[in-house]
Amino acid sequence: MTTKILALTDALGNLVRFRLMPGHRFDTVGVPPLLDGIAFGGLIADKAFDSDAIVADLDARGAKVVISQHPSRAKPLPLDRDLYKWRHLIENFFCKLKEFKRIAMRACKTDRSFSAMIYLAAAVINSQ
């Protein structure tokens, strides 16, 4: 069984919200529910999140788009490389999350217990 964790963190790398998805789904499918109801000034993401729908949603919100473009994009968007360097905070969060064996090995049998483990691990990470 494979599961993807889509996570949204704040500017300090603390978990704001996450969503579990099947491992074989595209990442862009889970982004709209992840961003729904949250106000923010910008989104830093990697090329897996480069879609016209996401960019249009961010433009409608007035948020800064800092997404590395997929090489096949016909019209590349400008990328603030200095701001993009801060993407390491989400990578650091996932590294810390995977230190918890039950999360790294997906030991929980249900999505509900797996989600509870992620919340617990995020609380421990934030308390350090």
From TrEMBL:
Superkingdom assignment: Bacteria
Molecular function GO labels: DNA binding; transposase activity
Transposase IS4-like domain: residues covered: 2-124
Single biological process term from Gene Ontology: DNA transposition
Protein name: Transposase
